[in-house]
Task: inverse folding
């Protein structure tokens, strides 16, 4: 599998010289299987640039996994060029168990007076599969799901192909259990032995304790502990805070690497930036 990031920012897209290294677009991950299947995870603002490339290349078949319905994970969908091409075949899977409920989530991104074109007016052949918390396969990739501990419900994913695994758990609060969410040990089991884990790492400890507990995001050192205890090979810190500058993200990575050295672990750790590519 090739995992490519098109956006790792949380809450809202940002711009400016302090955000050049990690980028300002919100969540969008591209996964290309060894057999050539294309899987897109979330439709934040990063999906716009991905869509531009797919349109240029004439890509027709696209599978899209959605984690949840918050705006920063959906706001790029109306600007995703393949949806305006009649040749496109797009299958959308998500946290809701039915086709109708998933379609309602997507349609709200293209509803007047917020957007001039409605979902019914686009050209692509779109299927809403609404798998909810079921396991399924896309080509050679087997997909497992787990509920997120996050307001308003959501789902995390584990993608496996030929004995290798990528786990994506953004917008997941490890030390606070939301309705429909699970406990720390459940996420530990879900991540066990993963080759690559991208996990929410939005907050510093002092930010979390003073103001943001219960908001649905994790302290980066708690995310690190999860990776260490789950015997993950590589950890990518994800969902960069909208106010976190490049130098501040770098400092968080250095803190994590210091802990890893102290524990004598072989875990690799980095912060996920727009443009990051990992082959597993």
Result:
């Amino acid at each position: 599998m090739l995992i490519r990031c098109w956006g790792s920012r949380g809450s809202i897209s940002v711009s400016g010289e302090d955000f050049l290294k990690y980028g300002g677009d919100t969540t969008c991950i591209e996964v290309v299987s060894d057999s050539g299947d294309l899987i897109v995870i979330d439709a934040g603002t990063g999906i716009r640039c991905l869509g531009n490339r797919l349109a240029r290349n004439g890509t027709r078949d696209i599978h899209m996994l959605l984690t949840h319905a918050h705006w920063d994970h959906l706001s790029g969908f109306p600007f995703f060029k393949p949806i305006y091409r009649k040749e496109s075949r797009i299958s959308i899977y998500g946290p809701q168990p039915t086709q109708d409920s998933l379609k309602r989530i997507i349609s709200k991104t293209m509803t007047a007076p917020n957007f001039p074109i409605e979902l019914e007016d686009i050209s692509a052949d779109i299927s809403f599969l609404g798998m909810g918390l079921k396991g399924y396969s896309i080509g050679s990739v087997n997909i497992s799901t787990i509920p997120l501990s996050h307001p308003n419900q959501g789902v995390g994913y584990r993608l496996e192909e030929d004995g290798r695994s990528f786990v994506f758990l953004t917008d997941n609060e490890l030390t606070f259990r939301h309705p429909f969410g699970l406990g720390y040990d459940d996420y530990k089991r879900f991540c066990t032995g993963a080759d690559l884990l991208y996990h929410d790492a939005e907050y510093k400890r002092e930010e979390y304790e003073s103001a943001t507990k219960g908001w649905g995001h994790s302290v980066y050192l708690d995310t690190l502990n999860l990776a260490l205890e789950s015997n993950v090979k590589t950890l990518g810190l994800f969902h960069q805070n909208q106010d976190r500058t490049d130098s501040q993200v770098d400092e968080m990575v250095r803190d994590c690497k210091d802990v890893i050295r102290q524990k004598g672990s072989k875990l690799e750790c980095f912060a996920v930036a727009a443009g990051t590519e990992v082959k597993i």
